[in-house]
């Protein structure tokens, strides 16, 4: 149960944000009405997220694994649910998505993907536990711009996951809309009403 009401006052801004969210994701993402209690937070966060979406140096699959490993470390069920759906929609294999919380015991990841998830966990720890050897392994395979983008994406996910967890935001059922349907069920489109 959310720790803050998810029904902020209806204003032109909240209606616009809700319309955009429904158009892009099929429903209003719970973090939006939570943030809408503070207009400045909603505007700044929305603009920031639009800018983050334009970062394109790092491979999207590596970025997705870093974000989900960070969310799993924090325990943000909302972020894991949405991340599963969003990355499945973009073609990430199911086994990679399902194994993120137990990536160390899984054989579906490449050495670079393992280093990325280790880096995400090390950055997410309090205090961070990043060491020089890990960064050096990453630098051998990522140029400086990609390493900076990876680092920032993990930081951004820490912001998202910690905020959502503190506000009590939990799964909205996104993952359910991309699981394999039962025989005879209607095909899954990746969007929910």
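^ structure tokens above, recovered residues below v
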């Amino acid at each position: 149960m959310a720790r803050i009401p998810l029904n902020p006052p209806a204003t032109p801004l909240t209606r616009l944000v809700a319309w955009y969210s429904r158009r892009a994701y099929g429903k209003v993402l719970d973090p939006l009405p939570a943030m809408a209690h503070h207009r400045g937070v909603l505007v700044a966060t929305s603009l920031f997220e639009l800018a983050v979406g334009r970062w394109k140096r790092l491979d999207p699959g590596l970025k997705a694994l870093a974000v989900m490993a960070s969310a799993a470390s924090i325990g943000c069920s909302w972020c894991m649910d949405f991340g599963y759906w969003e990355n499945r929609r973009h073609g990430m294999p199911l086994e990679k998505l399902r194994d993120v919380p137990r990536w160390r015991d899984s054989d579906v990841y490449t050495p670079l993907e393992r280093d990325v998830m280790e880096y995400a966990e090390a950055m997410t720890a309090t205090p961070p536990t990043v060491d020089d050897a890990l960064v050096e392994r990453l630098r051998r395979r990522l140029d400086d711009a990609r390493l900076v983008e990876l680092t920032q994406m993990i930081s951004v996910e820490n912001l998202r996951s910690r905020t959502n967890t503190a506000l009590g935001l939990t799964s909205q059922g996104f993952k359910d809309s991309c699981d394999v349907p039962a025989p005879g069920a209607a095909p899954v489109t990746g969007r929910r009403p």
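The CA atoms of residues 8 and 37 lie 6 Å apart.
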